[in-house]
Amino acid sequence: MVCIAPEWVIRGHVDDHALPTLNFTPAFRSLMRGRGMHDPGEVMSFLAPNLGQLRDPRPMKGMSRACRRIMDAIHAQETIGVFTDYDVDGVCSAALIHRFLTGIGCKPPVVFIPDRINDGYGLNMRGIDELYSQGATLLVTADCGITALEEVRYANTLGMDVIITDHHEVDEKLPEAHAVINPKQTDCLFSGEDLCGAGVVFHLIVALRSLLREQGVENLPNLKDELDIVAMATVADAVALSGLNRILVKEGLSVLNSALRVGFSALVKVAGIKKELISRDLGFILGPRINAAGRISDARKAFDLLITDDAGHAHLLAQELDTLNRKRQIHEQKVLEMALQQLKDHPCPGNVTIVCGRDWHIGVLGIVASRLVSLFSRPALVISIMDGLGTGSGRSMVGIDLHSALAQASGLLNSFGGHKMAVGLSVSEERIPLLLPTLNDIIGSQMNARERTFEVDLRISPFDLTPTLLEELELLAPFGEGNPEPVFLISSMEIVGSKVFDDGQTKLILKHSNRVFHTLRSPVGNGFCEKGKFLDVAFTPVKMRLNGHNYLYLSLKALASSR
Fold it and tell me: 478 and 241 in contact (C-beta within 8 Å)?
């Protein structure tokens, strides 16, 4: 639901004299100043990040010990096993390790990707046994393992050394691994950098490459070429798109648009993309196709797509992923419809949406949760019940730490994990009814300030919305936590038309100063569709290309009756 703002907090206004030496519109320069950038050099560095701004990965906690062990394995020609997750981040992480090791002439690592339905998330005994049976003496986890105390202990009893690379939240006790690389460790020098799993792995292979170069090894892989994989994982995993992640995604998009690897090239073709790729394409078009394999089939197909150099094989795999994605959409729509009907019959008021059903396909729970967040502007949990046990996925919104909320409600849960924007959980069926009131109170404490006020970047006039400004705003992408989409406010916009759709969403036609604006579909609620009514409108401008022409739409964020 679009926020109904009782009080606006306006961070700035359009100032013609803001950062005057920069060749941008006054609105854009004012936006940059409002986001704390008072130096032209700082602005340009933010708009055009480069690899020279990346940090040396070797001081990251656990990195030196991990690199020494992997180097020993390389020199001794040991078999290295990789255990990864089945989502985009996990598949990309494993592909990075595989491509690096084969790129320096090592034999390919043996890779285990668990089955979402039969294995569930995280390091497990079956995978350890399978890697051990293939001769692995060193086990490297990717995008998982940080809470796997028993599993790591079991691997150690088999004589396997374990190196954990992960980015999920850290418990007080760590597994007894040979090395743990996770920037969320409190005493890690990279603490505060919200890297995804592939981002952590990328720093590992950068450190390994540096060691190999110091040892005189020549013809090492150019790791810039791997940033397309890192960008894909970073955008798809909903981590903060600021700091190091902004650099990785910006540079990764440049790689994607300059020299597509055969796997991505095939995926772009079957997806029908015929323009320059942007971060939204990774999150909403390519990412879901990669994810579809692990959601309803075998994630190995996506992994094979990322490591193959055979264009023909890549095309067949991309077609299969595209087919799986269409099947995933059918499952998703079915679960979403049941969830929305459940909410219609039993409304879920308050600060969190929780829905559950029997035998819902667990591969689409996270996607449905994201859809519910978008529809109702609050965190959402979607739970599938089977044999008395609920398996759930949750998604949050900027400013709400869902992982922290689950930690406070952990007494009701069998297990949980993830990070502040995306979580997974297991809960006994009889405890599910207790989750709503408990999480409603916990999340409410985080949302109180948000509900009293609504913050916007700038108050602007309709004449500030120019094609030039829209082009300038594209320089700010990719957007996410740490770098949110800009939100502008125009006061006293008149409703001159509206259309309500079957799903309850509404399109408004607004007018101000003889300019007419169309909004994207959104759930605006009753009382905000009345023709002739005047509204204060907070929105993000969106440029959409239709039939070869660019059109401006307003993506509504908050509304208030004009005073």
Answer: yes
